[in-house]
Each structure stands twice: as structure tokens, then as C-alpha cells.
Design brief:
Strand content: 15-25%
Distance between the termini: 29 Å
Largest sheet: 4 strands, antiparallel
Oligomer: single chain
Strand order of the largest sheet: 2-3-7-6
CATH topology of the largest domain: Butyryl-CoA Dehydrogenase, subunit A, domain 3
Shape: globular
CATH class of the largest domain: Mainly Alpha
Length: 375
């Protein structure tokens, strides 16, 4: 299979790489994570001006029509810089659902492309175990509209979001895929309470309490009870993009560690000359290349609409969890005590890989799903 990039894809990769190198030195990233909203609004405007926010949207909506490969290239380079701007939650989750909604796409997609709105997807609940249909949040009819009640946890970009897409059960049993509805609400609407919190990787999320939130019929993205399929497809696309980001983080950690062992001396020689460390470096490289192979396979399967696309994605997510722990752990250990300090990028990269592993279900969850799908 030919993995050579087209001129357009190569230009995208190079432009994102240069932007990350110029705009995202680690010291700048560290300061951004310590202040609200946890990223740079100026950077977000630049990303809009460069056309990156338009990348995954259809050309008919003003987008660039980029597919899974373009998204992979984008997220990989953002991962190398541990970029904090909420590209995945705002564009690839909130934005992707809006694009799939014939009712709301014309309202929100142009604003997303211009960088004029921050959005988030609130789907995860305390008891849910990463199952999209396991919902206790309810959407019940009331007069001409509906009333929304429930709680959502770990809402990515939830602290900065102005608009929220919320999944809720409008009919059926607890695990029924039929009966899942998606509604768009204002983050400051009466009955919405947000509790921001910062994850260990520096990113800000929020916990939502929804008490008697009034929802009009026009705020539903799809017909009542028909939100599961688009939600599932959006989450799967986001998982693949997140794995591409993880691959970028792994590359950064592997390159940083390799450079360090070449320069750090012990007993008068570089520690990279020690055979024990060389073996561990080889293990890091092997894990990185295994991740690369599965990432390319998953992207190609999705791009071609292959029957094995879902299974390839689950295998990739398992590999990202496994390789992320190995590469992150080895990078920290080979840097010694300073590897876990806030002043060094290595510890932040390891933490980001841990958060990515747990997002949408960790390697153990995905391994069980893979086994069930294979059976």
C-alpha cells in the first residue's frame, strides 16, 4: 500500500508542524494550562484563519472536505506539541454532530468554521462505563417542548463551551439504542450548573447538573429517539482522531528521550551507551511502530468504508493504551527524578497519554469490545 502523501496533505502536515513549533514552546503551554479557559483564544483565532477549523466539514457548508487522513495528520502534529486548544471536543465532537444534523447544521457549522463559538458534547455519566446508550439523563415531553434532567461528567471543553449537545433518554429501557435523543442547549440556560475541574494532563473539563432545563423541539438535532447512530459514528471518528494525537505524543516522547540519553553522561559516558537502556529504547521504538501500523490501517479502513473499520479502530485503541503506558513510563524513568516534574515536558506527555487511554474507554474496555465483535 502506498502511504505517500498528496501535495495537499503534505502541505497541511508541514503547516501544522511549523505552527506548533513556533507557537507552542513548552513554557507557553505550561502557562496556558494554569489559567482560564485553559487554552489561548488567540491561537484559536489563528487556527480558524488558517482554515484548520474548516478541515473536516463538507465543502457545501464552507468546509474543506477533509477526510480521516487529513484529520489524522492534523491531530498527530497537535499531539507532538501537547496542544491545549479544544480541537477534538469543539470541532470533531460538537461540530461533527452539528454537521450530521439537517436541522441545525446551517446555524452552527459556519460559526464553528469562523471560530465564533465554543461547543462540547456531554454524553458520559457516572454509572455509564463508557456505554453511549447507558443513560439516566432524561428528556420528557412538557407542553410544546421537553424538559431535560440529569447529570453529565467529564465533559471535554465543558468549562469553556457556550453550547452543549447533551445525550438523554426519551424512550425505551436503560441500554436500548432506540430512544436516545440529542439536544443542543445554551450552557448558561436556566437549570444548567457547571463545575469546572482540571485533569492531570492540564485540560479543563466540567461536570454538569441539569435540573428542569426547558428544551424546544427545534433544539433536537434529530427526531426524538434517533440520536444513537450519529452519536456512535461521531464518537468512533473522534476515537480515531484521539489515537492519532496519542501517536504524536508518543513520537515526541521517544525523540526527547533518545536525545536525552545521547547527552546525559554517567561514569564519564553517555547513558545511551548502556546496553540495558538500549534494549528499552528498542522496546519504545517497536511500540511506536506498532501504533503507526494500526493507525494507518484504521484510517485506511475508515476512508474506504471497509467492513473491518470498527474492529481496526478497537485494535488501535487497545494498542494506544498499551504502547502509551510503555513509552510514557520509559520516557519518565530514563529522565530520572526530573521526569515527573512540572518543569519538564516528559511528565506532561505521559499524563496526556494516560488521559487519552481512559477517554471513551481504556484498553481493557476496548479489548472486551473487540473480543465481543470478533465472536
Amino acid at each position: 500500500m502506498n502511504f505517500d502523501l498528496s501535495d495537499d496533505d503534505a502541505a497541511l502536515q508541514d503547516s501544522v508542524a511549523r505552527w506548533v513549533q513556533q507557537r507552542y514552546p513548552f513554557e507557553r503551554r505550561y502557562k496556558l494550562a494554569q489559567q482560564s479557559p485553559g487554552f489561548s483564544p488567540e491561537h484559536w483565532k489563528e487556527m480558524a484563519q488558517l482554515g484548520w477549523l474548516a478541515l473536516p466539514f463538507d465543502e457545501a457548508l464552507g468546509g474543506l472536505g477533509g477526510g480521516p487522513l487529513a484529520t489524522m495528520l492534523m491531530m498527530e502534529q497537535l499531539g507532538k506539541g501537547l496542544v491545549l486548544e479544544p480541537y477534538l471536543p469543539n470541532v470533531l465532537l460538537f461540530g461533527a454532530l452539528m454537521q450530521r444534523s439537517a436541522r441545525l447544521r446551517d446555524t452552527w457549522v459556519p460559526k464553528l468554521i469562523e471560530g465564533g463559538v465554543q461547543g462540547a458534547l456531554a454524553w458520559q455519566e457516572r454509572h455509564g462505563h463508557h456505554e453511549l446508550a447507558d443513560l439516566q439523563t432524561t428528556l420528557r415531553p412538557a407542553g410544546d417542548g421537553f424538559v431535560l434532567d440529569g447529570e453529565k461528567v467529564l465533559v471535554f471543553n465543558g468549562a469553556a463551551a457556550e453550547q452543549l449537545v447533551v445525550s438523554a433518554r426519551s424512550s425505551g429501557g436503560r441500554f436500548d439504542e432506540a430512544g436516545v435523543s440529542l439536544v443542543c442547549i445554551d450552557a448558561t440556560a436556566p437549570g444548567v450548573e457547571r463545575a469546572p475541574l482540571q485533569l492531570m494532563d492540564g485540560q479543563w473539563v466540567a461536570r454538569l447538573q441539569l435540573r428542569g432545563v426547558q428544551v424546544k423541539a427545534g433544539q433536537l438535532l434529530f427526531a426524538p429517539g434517533e440520536g444513537f447512530a450519529p452519536l456512535q459514528q461521531t464518537v468512533q471518528d473522534a476515537m480515531r482522531a484521539l489515537c492519532a494525537e496519542a501517536f504524536g505524543v508518543m513520537q515526541m516522547l521517544q525523540a526527547t528521550t533518545l536525545e536525552y540519553v545521547k547527552t546525559r553522561k554517567q561514569f564519564g559516558v553517555p547513558i545511551g551507551s548502556f546496553q540495558a537502556l538500549q534494549h528499552r529504547l528498542v522496546d519504545m521504538y517497536a511500540a511506536l511502530e506498532q501504533t503507526r501500523a494500526l493507525l494507518y490501517r484504521a484510517v485506511c479502513s475508515a476512508d474506504e468504508g471497509h467492513a473491518d473499520a470498527q474492529r481496526d479502530l478497537l485494535a488501535l485503541k487497545v494498542m494506544v493504551g498499551k504502547a502509551g503506558r510503555l513509552i510514557g513510563g520509559e520516557a519518565v524513568q530514563m529522565h530520572g527524578g526530573m521526569g515527573i516534574t512540572d518543569e519538564l515536558v516528559v511528565g506532561h506527555g505521559m499524563k496526556r497519554l494516560r488521559v487519552i487511554d481512559s477517554s471513551f474507554g481504556n484498553a481493557d474496555v476496548q479489548r472486551a469490545r473487540f473480543a465481543a465483535l470478533a465472536a
